[in-house]
């Protein structure tokens, strides 16, 4: 019997991709962590070929000048959006989804090629190594995949394109990764100095969760399990963001952006979160 062909398996729940193997892993490291979950009917796996055969496709949309989003329809995994930051030197891809096709690759090519891939945290890596390999450098290695050293153990598909960084790295002129912690030790944001009309924008994934209404954000250890981050993690996160000039925040899902006034929204939201977390806020109907 011929050996089974190797497949780079993708978890159906979180859409993160594992190294090529004849059979899928026994379980998904992301989904068995206490921040995520395995569906009640069990672990399922897919692949790029299977997703393409099912009719999934990439859809591009403009977010603001210099920033485009790519989503997958129908959605894969938790349905987050990737964001493409274009610069004169090429594009930086943030939080890639768990699928890519020719339309996705062509969109990056049209933006001048891929400088590298970065992510907010280990849940939103998608098929980052596939992206890297579509855009090899002169040495034949894929485009850089930037991973905070504090999350190195969460690299599910190791590759020589993975570049570890520490607390801050400028990946293109005016485009800087900043580690904040909180949801994960390596939870990060991407600061884009030229965005928001030159006032600056933060691309946050769910390092900071943009909430419906475009005026509030939150900060959680686990979003599906609804576990908050403790106050000391919030303080560190706010301290990491404080020096960055920004007026906009672009979240991890389509439509979840605060296009202006985001610094104030972050401050008000953090005060509210802290008040409820520590019990200084209260509901008069229940305090009798
Ligand atoms: Zn998973």
Helix content: 10-25%
The string of secondary-structure elements, in order, is EEHEHEEEEHEHEEEEEEEEEEHEEH
* Mass-distribution shape: globular
Low-pLDDT ranges: none
Derived from helix and strand composition plus strand pairing, the structural class reads: alpha+beta
Report a brief summary of the structure.
This protein is α+β, with helices and mostly antiparallel strands and 288 residues long. Helix content is 19%, strand content 30%.
Topology, pairings included?
Blueprint: E1 7-11, E2 17-21, H1 29-32, E3 45-46, H2 48-53, E4 57-64, E5 67-73, E6 82-87, E7 90-94, H3 102-110, E8 114-118, H4 128-134, E9 145-148, E10 162-165, E11 168-172, E12 175-179, E13 188-192, E14 201-205, E15 209-210, E16 217-218, E17 220-222, E18 227-228, H5 231-241, E19 248-251, E20 257-258, H6 262-278
Parallel strand pairs: 7-8, 8-9, 9-10, 14-19
Antiparallel strand pairs: 1-2, 1-3, 4-5, 5-6, 6-7, 11-12, 12-13, 13-14, 15-16, 17-18, 19-20
The structure holds zinc ion.
Q: What features would you describe in this structure?
A:
With 288 residues, the protein is an alpha+beta fold. The chain has a single domain, classed as Metallo-beta-lactamase, Chain A. The protein contains 6 helices and 20 strands. The chain has helices at 29-32, 48-53, 102-110, 128-134, 231-241, 262-278; strands at residues 7-11, 17-21, 45-46, 57-64, 67-73, 82-87, 90-94, 114-118, 145-148, 162-165, 168-172, 175-179, 188-192, 201-205, 209-210, 217-218, 220-222, 227-228, 248-251, 257-258. It has a 7-stranded mixed beta sheet with strand order 4-5-6-7-8-9-10, with helices on one face. It has a 6-stranded mixed beta sheet with strand order 11-12-13-14-19-20, covered by helices on one side. A hairpin with a 2-residue loop joins strand 11 (168-172) and strand 12 (175-179). The protein is globular and about 65 Å long. The relative contact order is 0.12. The mean pLDDT is 96. Bound molecules: zinc ion. Zinc ion is lined by residues 11, 13-14, 16, 28, 30-31. Residues 11, 13-14, 16, 28, 30-31 line the site of zinc ion. One of its GO terms (molecular function) is hydrolase activity. This is Hydrolase. InterPro entries: RibonucZ/Hydroxyglut_hydro (IPR036866). It comes from Cellulomonas aerilata. Keywords: Hydrolase.
């Amino acid at each position: 019997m011929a050996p089974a062909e190797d497949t780079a398996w993708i978890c159906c729940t979180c859409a993160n991709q594992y190294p090529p193997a004849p059979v899928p892993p026994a379980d998904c490291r992301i989904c068995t962590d206490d921040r995520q979950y395995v569906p009640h009917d069990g672990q399922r796996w897919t692949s790029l070929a299977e997703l393409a055969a099912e009719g999934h496709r990439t859809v591009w949309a403009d977010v603001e000048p210099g920033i485009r989003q790519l989503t997958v329809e129908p959605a894969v995994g938790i349905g987050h959006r990737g964001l493409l930051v274009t610069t004169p030197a090429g594009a930086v891809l943030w939080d890639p989804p768990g699928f890519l096709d020719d339309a996705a690759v062509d969109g990056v090519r049209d933006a001048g090629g891929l400088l590298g891939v970065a992510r907010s945290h280990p849940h939103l890596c998608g098929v980052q190594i596939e992206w890297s390999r579509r855009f090899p450098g002169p040495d034949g290695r894929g485009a850089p995949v930037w991973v905070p050293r504090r999350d190195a153990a969460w690299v599910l598909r190791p590759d020589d394109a993975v570049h570890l960084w520490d607390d801050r790295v400028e990946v293109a002129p005016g485009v800087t990764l900043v580690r904040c912690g909180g949801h994960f030790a390596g939870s990060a944001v991407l600061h884009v100095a030229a965005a928001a009309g030159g006032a600056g924008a933060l691309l946050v994934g769910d390092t900071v969760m943009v909430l419906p209404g475009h005026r509030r954000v939150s900060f959680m250890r686990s979003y599906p399990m609804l576990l908050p981050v403790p106050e000391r993690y919030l303080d560190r996160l706010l301290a990491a963001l404080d020096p960055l000039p920004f007026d906009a925040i672009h979240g991890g899902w389509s439509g979840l952006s605060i296009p202006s006034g985001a610094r104030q929204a972050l401050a008000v939201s953090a005060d509210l979160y802290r008040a409820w977390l520590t019990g200084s806020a209260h509901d008069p109907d229940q305090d009798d």
